[in-house]
Amino acid sequence: MTKQYTPAKVWTMDNQNGGLWASINRPDSGARHEQALPKGKQPLQLYSLATPNGQKVTIMLEELLAKGVKEAEYDAYLINIGEGEQFSSGFVEINPNSKIPALIDTSADNPIRVFESGNILLYLAEKFGHLLPKEIAAKTEVMNWLFWLQGSAPYLGGGFGHFYAYAPEKFEYPINRFTMETKRQLDLLDKQLANNEFIGGDEYSIADIAIWPWYGNLALGKLYDAAEFLDVDSYPHLQRWAKQISERDAVKRGRIVNRTSGEEWEQLSERHCAADIDAVLSRKP
Ligand SMILES: N[C@@H](CCC(=O)N[C@@H](CS)C(=O)NCC(=O)O)C(=O)O
Questions:
Q1: 48 CB less than 6 Å from ligand 1?
Q2: Tell me, what's the pLDDT at 17?
Q3: How far apart are CA 195 and CA 237, in angstroms?
Q4: What is the mean pLDDT of the chain?
Q5: Is the minimum distance from the CB of 149 to ligand 1 under 6 angstroms?
Q6: How far is CA 157 from CA 33, 140, 166, in A?
Q7: Pairing with 210, which of 7, 23, 252, 253 sits 20 to 30 Å away (CA)?
Q8: Which residues form a coiled coil (predicted)?
Q9: What pTM was computed for the model?
Q10: Ligand 1 centroid to 32 CA: how many Å?
Q11: Handedness of CA 142, 145, 151, 155 (dihedral sign)
Q12: Considering only CA atoms, which of 25, 50, 19, 34 is closest in space to residue 255?
């Protein structure tokens, strides 16, 4: 057991808690400094970072472009959340919640701001008529899983990932609790994928695009360095799906946008046209 903790009568912020995000996290919202966002020429302006939540949107945009939807062209600007860029006045105007990803659709008469990654996927799917079935039962099944992801990934990221990879010490209680939940989620996906090619059924959809960056990357050992600890190889159907999705061209393209870590051939801090991605991927040995 770690040393006994008795909560104070009224909580106050402890600047010294030492976690990776300690210098960024504060108990208030809103802009912390004045700074406008950069703007490019494409119809869609994305402000993001290649975390799993960020990858959802760039994969979606690359899937749309692969289908020939030219109106899905986008400028993707890097928001360095470790440096607090999500708290600029410009970013807060488009997402008052100060979290990436955030999008502006400048093709509308009045630009439309879109935040929350799940909502961005839905917005793009509806706007362009792709990757979301039209028939009510199939569409609802995809939405079931999209909402599932938005509600479940915080247990993986904010719960398991935070305590396993980022907290200043390894605390047994939260690691046990969130590992139990994460493995339950992996088992759930494995069972769903045992009988379905894709998460929502027979069709690749925004449910796969939402879930793969989290649970696909985790299954492939690319998240939190936790493959062995979680025994990810014991979920064969999830493994099959994770590999299948990772081989899609749009996934290979989208996952490197706004990425600033990893191999040289998978880092593209800003994207303004297809050639930007081609140039980086061509460096792959
Ligand atoms: N529910 C949000 C979550 C977004 C989110 O948590 N973004 C993280 C990076 S993955 C972030 O911007 N964190 C910065 C911060 O917390 O200050 C979504 O799906 O868009």
A1: no
A2: 67
A3: 9
A4: 96
A5: no
A6: 27, 26, 10
A7: 23
A8: none
A9: 0.97
A10: 17
A11: negative
A12: 50
